[in-house]
Predict the structure.
Amino acid sequence: MAKSKSVKTPTVKAATATNSAATISTTAPTASTRELRIGLVGYGFMGRAHANAIRQVPHFFKTGRKPVLQAVCGRDEPKVREFAARWDARSIETDWRKLVAREDIDAVDICTPNDSHMEIALACIKHGKMILCEKPLALNGKQGEAMVKAVEKAKLPNLVWYNYRFLPAVSLAKNIADSGELGKIFHYRANFLQDWTISTDLPQGGTGLWRLDAKVAGSGVTGDLLAHCIDTARWINGDIVAVSAMTETFIKERVHTATGKKQPVKIDDACAFLARFANGSLAVFESTRYARGHKALYTFEINGEHKSLAWDLHDLNRLSYFDHGVPSDRRGWSSIHCTDGDHPYAGNWWVPGLGLGYEHSFVHGLAEFLGALDDPKAPRRFPDFRHALGTQYVCDAVLEAARTQKWVKVRTA
Ligand SMILES: NC(=O)c1ccc[n+]([C@@H]2O[C@H](COP(=O)([O-])OP(=O)(O)OC[C@H]3O[C@@H](n4cnc5c(N)ncnc54)[C@H](O)[C@@H]3O)[C@@H](O)[C@H]2O)c1
């Protein structure tokens, strides 16, 4: 099996900067490439993002196994057929139980709402399937523990789709932090701001709106949005050990799509929390769906003794960089356009200067997963179930801290 040379890691050199055509042709799979036959469960927002990644990976990354969309599964047959036709899925299923039992499926990609992750994952494990699971790992730490225990016992490759870490600028921030050049870290801060639930007329429950139903989502912005910020923060700055938090549910009742009646809203509409990292640094995190004017503003900043880094999803190809080591009259924030051949992943795509987008984060995540199948000893850049359980523990601790109004210690995964 060929080793992946195209997935950028701190230990793998980037392709040359002027290699757009060469990269594509030399990384195309050979006729003998073995397929990784993926069964996709759920054809909503993430179903589309992942179907796109499955199709794109072999065009831009050299991996030992070529991912193919062997089947797509959803409960509404006409809609599943339409999705399968659009994305060239080889077959369909309308019951995920049948999908996970199929002999011709190697890996299952779980793109359903949070309350189904554990049940589907445990069934996959029973049938010996690799699992790619959307975030958050589960509704809570208890469910996550059962998933980690089962997947590790079965020794099945697994990934959780915390995708932002696979953007070139975020990945570069990780590389810079790992190099130690930031010096002692003092602060980390992150925000994830949206404004789509301000209307009192918005119901809870159903496609997309299941996020407002605590039974299906587990929590509100904490598990949905802050979980992304926590994954990135833990990846770049290490473990979070303790949190203190406040949450609010601004709209207390909403009509439930299933019953047509007003029901209490049990999710957190907004959450702000303070955190301490194991390395001694302090953090402030904030997320809300009530920040009028913001659609998906994810930002983070890290301040070290020598340098600071900052990133903004609205300008996702850029990493802001401040170096105190520069002569004082030249000091200032610079903006690194992470599109050159030696930036993570960028060399696999176009010529320098041409940016990537949100969808590429999923392509890169899948390429990393496939790269690790080729070479299990290669450095891991993707979060597995155990790492995602650590993030789940932080979310659980945040919600407990908000409930009890006390500092809460975070469990170690
Ligand atoms: N990584 C990210 O950036 C990101 C972004 C959005 C959502 N997510 C996560 O992805 C998951 C799905 O979110 P979404 O936005 O795609 O939701 P969505 O509502 O757009 O799609 C959910 C899909 O799951 C299907 N589904 C629900 N129950 C099912 C069942 N029992 N069997 C088969 N299909 C079923 C629905 O029909 C729908 O196709 C969630 O866990 C969410 O937290 C991650």
Remarks:
- The longest helix spans residues 385-404.
- The radius of gyration is 21 Å.
- Residues 1-31 have pLDDT under 50 and may be disordered.
- Residues 41-47, 73-75, 96, 111-114, 116, 134-135, 161, 163, 207-208, 210, 224 surround nicotinamide-adenine-dinucleotide (CB under 6 Å).
